[in-house]
Hints:
Layout: E1 12-18, H1 20-23, E2 34-40, E3 43-48, E4 52-57, E5 67-73, E6 80-86, E7 91-96, E8 99-103, E9 112-113, E10 120-125, E11 135-142, E12 145-153, E13 159-165, E14 173-179, E15 182-187, E16 190-195, E17 201-206, E18 215-219, E19 224-229, E20 232-237, E21 247-248, E22 255-259, E23 262-266, E24 270-275, E25 281-286, E26 295-298, E27 308-313, E28 324-329, H2 332-341, H3 345-358, H4 363-379, H5 383-392, H6 402-405, H7 431-450, H8 459-463, H9 468-486, H10 493-509, H11 513-521, H12 528-537, H13 541-550, H14 554-569, H15 571-578, H16 584-605, H17 609-622, H18 624-631, H19 642-648, H20 654-666, H21 673-697, H22 707-725, H23 731-738, H24 744-754, H25 757-767, H26 771-781, H27 784-795, H28 805-815, H29 821-830
Antiparallel strand pairs: 1-28, 2-3, 3-4, 4-5, 6-7, 7-8, 8-9, 10-11, 11-12, 12-13, 14-15, 15-16, 16-17, 18-19, 19-20, 20-21, 22-23, 23-24, 24-25, 26-27, 27-28
Helix pairs in contact: 2-3, 4-5, 5-9, 7-9, 9-10, 10-11, 10-12, 11-13, 12-13, 13-14, 14-15, 14-16, 14-17, 16-17, 16-18, 17-18, 18-20, 20-21, 21-22, 21-23, 22-24, 23-24, 24-25, 25-26, 25-27, 26-27, 27-28, 27-29
Amino acid sequence: MGSHPPSSRTALEPLATLDPAALAGLPPSSPLTVRAAALSGHLLYLGTGGGKLLLFSLHDEEAASPDFLRLLPIGATLPVSAIIPLPSVARILVLAQGILLLADPLLSRPVRRLGSLRNVSAVAAHATADPSSPSCSVAVAVGKKLLRVDLELRDGDELDVQTREIAAPVDDVKALAWVGDSVFVATAMGYSLFSSGDGQGVDIFTVPESSDQPRVKPLSGGEEVMLLVDNVGVVVGTFGQPVGSSLVFNTTPHCIAEVFPYVVVAGDSKVDVYRRRNGAHLQTIPFARSGPGVLIVASDDDGRGKELLVIATAYKRNYLACQVFCYRKVSAVEQIKASLRRKNYKEAISLLEEFETDGEISKDMISFVHAQLGFLLFFDLRFEDAVNHFLLSETLQPSEIFPFIMRDPNRWSDLVPRKRYWGLHPPPKPLEEVIDDGLVTIQQALFLKKAGVDTVVDEDFLSNPPSRADLLELAIRNIIRFLCASRMKNLSFPEMEGVDTLLMYLYRALDLVDDMEKLASSQNSCIVDELESLLDDSGHLRTLAFLYGSKGMCSKALAIWRVLARNYGAGLWKDLSENGSDEISIDKKSSEGIAAIEASKILKTSSDEELILEHLGWIADIDQELAIAVLTSDMRGKQLSPEKVIASVDSEKVVIHQRYLQWLIEDQSCDDSHYHTSYALLLAQSAMKAVHMEAKYGGKDDKEIDSDVQFIYSLRDRLQLFLQASDLYDPEEVLDVIAESELWLEKAILYRKMGQENIVLQILALKLEDSEAAEQYCAEIGRDDAYIQLLGLYLDPQNGKEPMFTAAVRLLHNHGKSLDPLQVLEVLLLHQY
């Protein structure tokens, strides 16, 4: 056997070489010419041109010599042309000189003839669906007849043989194949198929007269057959319809075998290996010709030996002994491993995809290979590709990446699994060391390249060497991508802690502030002890505050927000203002507001009264609305003590006092008269300011009035509504506050609460001059004397005012019929009318 040509792919590897004649003890004067070969499990059958059957036992172990078991002569004038193992009936079917012979699997007994058939041109066995069945069938071409022979194993190792015709006469049959219910027939004219049940036939296609010997080969799976037309293998289904793509061979095959997922064809002086799915040529095994003859290839299509291939040389020249070469399919894993050893990553990925498609590699091994590829690419500084493969691996644990980020020993060292990959890459180590070693390798490769020596270093790196800083940033960004994806997996709690904490380390390394704060403020598994010094020293206080807050460390978080708010209001922005920035005031207000907002989020859910009141003041200084939201939050389990709240709020923060008391009374249904009175007093004081502001801005359009002024205007309405609705406040205290003011309607409400009817009527009729309201109030009193009293006020307003005749006439018109005429006359006479 000649040496293999350089190839990047080895699908079949040599297992053993045997000299049949020497192993069988035959003298050199009696050379063997192999005409047929067959594999059945670990047994190899060879048929010779001199009418001999030889049996050998093969071993899976590499370099183990096959064992010769037996030689069985069948007749010197009976050259063997085909050997078909029939394991279901414990027989070997032999086609020799046109007759069919049966032998036992160990060739321990003389052969027996199968029937009286002569001039058999082709034979094919039907694959048995049930391997435990003690029967099988074969199709036989005898002259123009196509026969079906059914064999059944009986007790005593006897065979029951039944023969019947399948179809109409068929001329010049060259080859047969039986797949499913269809018997495929190859003739010099073309290919056809017949039903093994009813004999119905159909032509598949014809071939040119100049075509070489037709051949038909059943393929594994039991549903496809390859029909050979010169150097093209047409794959058809059980009904003769083409399926998939055809295989185009480099030469016209003399013999075809299959070692799934490969098709192996033998030519004049070489054996070629093709991928069955797409016809890609993978490997060539050359043989030096020593005379006329052909190469024979055989495999076990239905047994344990389907991983093996036998190549027999049938060359005859100068009594040179023929040889048989045993090959073994290289496993998917070994082929991928070989590519990775050569750092041919593109080929390894292609192989992985190919074997995954063919079902030649398990799901776990696919994940293993992706992980192995990732580590190799990582150490070759191809970080993006490496992480892409890490993400494709379902078995790679995130903790396997931790050593790239943090030097051992560390908190997570025990989590890192001691997986044994293929020993193709060094153990993981910190990124800086990986990059430094990689850069040294690139420099060495550049030197070798100048010396004319090829290297496996990426050509892109050689033509444009990267900088250490760029590589470090690229590596960190891609590890970040991997850790972010890992967060979506169902990890153990310690591993989740490692992922989040180290992710924060990497964010900080690239100063990705937004990402840091997003992680810290969301639900996370970061370990505070590992990060607080790091974040504090680097000045990432906002991130640290978010982290404290997410871990329930509210006091520490609030302390930071308070410091940040103070800094925003003092030194930090003082420095900026010296630079003349036009956006200082806007940014200052915005940044202070952010600090207050984040602090208020924490306080809204806290029930720690002392903590809330401690930080309420500075929040209120920045935004009173936030302070109100903190005090009135319904997100806490236990509400605050109103007494302590009111005592702690700055008395100058009137709006906070008002809004808090309003919430306490209206939303919390507080019935404490003290708080009702306090609320009424605050509203009254604000209403008095509203009157003052109304006088000040009365001549202006509403659009010109500041929003704060507009807010004050609404207070009178709120005061009036509250004074009318509540019965729990002290009206006298409120009257004391507004006694000197012009809040006459409010005074009327208060006097009414106190039962001072005459004063109420005076206010309504004389101060407010609201006749309708005055009459309505009389109706509410329900006594006629109230109307008489109102009539007297209209006729004698006093204080120098003119009598209100119109109002008096209106009153008499509306209610005169119900009044006592004498009382009306007395009032009129009293006032001299």
